[in-house]
Amino acid sequence: MTTRVRYLIPWGLLLLAALASLLFGAGSLPWQEAASALVGQGHEDARFVLLELRLPRLAVGATVGLALGVAGALLQALTRNPLAEPGLLGVSAGSAFAVSLAILFGASTATLTTLVAQAGALAGCALVLAATRLQGTGQDPVRLVLAGATVTGLLLSLTSLLMLIDQRAADEIRFWITGSVAGRQWHQWWATLPSLALATVVILTVIRPLASLALGERVAMGLGHRPGLIRLLVILVVALLVGAATALAGPLVFVGLVVPFAARALAGADIRRTLWLCLPIGPALVVFADTLSRLLVAPSELPLGVITALVGAPVLMVIVRARRMPTL
């Protein structure tokens, strides 16, 4: 398989996933009518379902997949650990806990939720990395995941406790635990764009130094880079991306694990090529999972987090059980 074909396949899968998301759903709209509305024809109800319900949901799902995929790739490159993933390292759980606190105290606007989610993501990531550094286990992949699972369990338990404090907020908080893009609107999507734009600027700034850091701190310093500053900026970007994704869809696990794993399988270990392939693979995964969540138990819907967990758990077991851990 040529390099060009390897790069085109994910974009083709993303196109198919997007079409499936627009044409198929849990409602009573036949796919033929949805296809007619997609080309500007069909009746008014079909156009409403397509443009006001499914299209915003597609945009939100694609944005969430892109953010989590890129965040996972950056975390794995930073820690040089193929098991590093926002959902496993306390980042998503910290974000969800912060959002739950905000809801408990009456927050309702999408912008405030996004900012709070990003602060929680930063705190969760910093807590896990600090714990592993104190114990000297930062280079042990399995122990890093165990530390992340411990922090994640603690934060999710605290989130569940918040649900008992205020029954009014319990239903809203439950959204952040299960994960879903159902009912997302354009104004919520727009609210995350400033932070995503900032994250993009920072990524373009640190991508070359981060690739050098993969060769070792001494090599990076010899090339004129500052490893401490690189780590700080990468953690900031991860917090921005995961916070925005959690604000939109709740704490989805395993997306940040599966997407970089698939990207490296196609492009190799170079973080620059990996990030380019995360752009289509992440959205394709989440959009496809969201479509399945609507169809498997129609007319009801499964939580999106359940589908991503079913996809990601086998990938995690494959990595852990490998005789030789994948190198980054």
Automatic annotation (TrEMBL):
GO terms for molecular function: transmembrane transporter activity. This is ABC transporter permease. It is a multi-pass membrane protein. The chain crosses the membrane at residues 58-75, 87-106, 144-165, 189-207, 228-245, 274-296, 302-320. Keywords: Cell membrane, Membrane, Transmembrane, Transmembrane helix, Transport. It comes from the Bacteria. CDD domains: TM_ABC_iron-siderophores_like (cd06550). GO terms for cellular component: plasma membrane. One of its GO terms (biological process) is siderophore-iron import into cell. It is found in: Cell membrane.
